[in-house]
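Moderator note: this is an archived Q&A kept for reference. The question asked for a predicted structure of one protein chain; the sequence and the answer are reproduced below.
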Amino acid sequence: MDHIPVIFPSESEFANPIDYLSQPSIQRLGRHYGMVKLIPPANFKPPFCIDRENFRFHVRVQNLSVLNILNRCRLFFVKQWNNYNRASGAKNHVADKTVLNPYIKLQTGEGVYLYDLFIEVLKFFNNDENSGNNNTNHNGKRPRSLQRIINFPALQKVNSDTRLWKRLSCRFEVDGRHLQEIFSAYIANYYEYLASQTKNRGSQYFSKLLYKEEYPKSLLSDDDVSETEEDSEDSEEEGCAVCNHDTKPSKMMLCDSCDKPFHIFCLSPPLDSIPKGDWICNNCIIGNGYYGFREERHRYSLEEFQNLWNNNEKNLTSDPSTGEPLSIEQLEEKFWNYVNDMENTLTVKYGADVLGEGPGEISGFPSKDYKPLDSKTKCSDQDFENYTNHPMNLLNLPDAKGSLLPMFDRKISGMTVPWIYVGSTFSTFCWHLEDQYTLSANYQHEGAPKVWYSIPESSCDRFNQLMRELAPDLFEKQPDLLHQLVTLISPYDEKFKKSGIKCFKAVQQPNEYIITFPKCYHAGFNSGYNFNEAVNFTLDSWVPYGMEAVADYKLTGKHCVFDMFELMLNVIIESLHQSSKFERSLVENCFREVRTILNSNVRTIEQLLSNVLSKKLELGRTIRDEFAHTRKRNLVSQDTQYSQQEQQQRGSDDDEDFDVFCTRCKTICSLAFVLHYKNGPNRKKRKIQSMTPTKLNELANSNNGELEILCLDDYARLVSDSNGDDQKTLAKGDENTDLFKNDELNYVRDFDEIYRILSMAGKSLLG
């Protein structure tokens, strides 16, 4: 596998990183490889300034084999299959037993994974050419998400379709008759159950058969749950898992798989009485697809974590016969063997996404707030100050000259405030894209090499397609799976290589940066103890990627970290105050995007909503309208570093929402939203003008289902779907109008004021 390129900026280039990385030659490298390794000038050697005495961090426990996407799906399927048989009380020669091995082997020596056989059957009948299904919804339009409809043909059709079994015989290199035997003995009853569920519930989406979980529990949860998790689970599960209330406990029962309580009348369909024998919820039979890392309660010091590695993990990096250290290539092969081997039980610990709490704990770079005593022997006071203010100090990079993130008047943990990563042997970061497709910089302070893999933007679609083909049901249940950082596939896997995905690797050493570019999937692992930190930043060329991320997030239901509309509008406003602050091309791009979004919102209100909504509210400053009050002209001084105390204080804002999110697609409602009362006229009145965005979002996402916050697009669809015709709106007097009688249109920002700003900006650009 080819390595990413290494770049060597001069001192002057290194002192202006945004300009340097914006050079066309560097941009071309970023687009082609996805990331580059940056070696600082020889004299840039900042002292490691973490407070070793007080710095503490939690670790995630990673079971490497379960991170493999196919391993996890195969184990999920067996758990779901066993739960189905427990709940159904099936009594045949297979169903009355618990299956532990997801691989079924015949006496002939042939065999197959149950999940693989089940999925290939579904794929065959959900392929357009085999099923006649064009994957459209009831209005003849393609679904507005990445979820795929699952068609379950009659079991008789599955058994009798000779083309199916001939194709599967070639696919698995197993005699078709033997595959049919396995399907009939193990899968057929479960298949029929799923088919009946989709039919009875009127939905051909797996996700529609599940109940919404605020605190989902994985079917592959570790047995040794930490005390913290036990305590939190006890408090979370006091109320019904569906309605979240603990009223009428006599009508409540526990799932015999996940132990969560349910009111019998909250189930779909509801039950008249508590059933005898085992009862298991749909999320445990159909599977919610959720998987997350367990976090240990104990907080480690760096010394303690290093000693742990020396005592327990050093053998992983040595040749068992000679005791010699393994090379990076040998460690790489060993790591992927662990990931691919379902029988492997190795768990590792990773101090990932660590947000420090005080001076000397937020970053390993020099800062105003903390100077370790031994640093004086490594550099002079003047050098220390220079490192403190240097733009490639990751405390400063997000706000460096040319970055757009200072356009927000707040810090964002993990993006503009560094996150720390304390690695151990084979601890891993799974395939993911950076939030909102921003660029990232990762610096290694000390320790063993970190191995990286990059998939450039040109191969993003192929990678997405491959992962969805491997586990279509998992993505249907968890559309944002690849944003969760819990999934791996080896770049050396045959399926990966045959898919034509470009992939490159890098080996990062101390005092080296890895720079990732927009829409670069990346993953990797640590070859031993190390200490890294990372932040995000932007270039002017990133703006289109930021807009693309907003559209992509709507498809998967992922929340944006910040509001692109706000950022672009702020760029326009700042350019009016200081015309030379941004490149003209950037301002023009932001101007076009803001105008397009604003006009689209106005058209939606005029064309689709005016006949439905009668109540309109101006929220004003309740929802952070930056023109409702005077903004700071210089939100962050370009050459000034936030103190670590300020970083800590602003990092605490993560618990508060700055934006209102659509309940359905999770997009930020930048300009307006509709408060939709599901019960129509019989709704409970709410005075939302006094509510913060956090309170509004909590109210809309509560399990009582009273109301929804809807972006204009989703509200227009709701109106259209209720009328059954996408080409017309509901006219006043229509009998369905009562459904929307008390809904409220809420303006987040003043449209007239934005038009005024655009008018001034337009004249400025013309001039």
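Archived answer notes: The chain has a mean pLDDT of 85.
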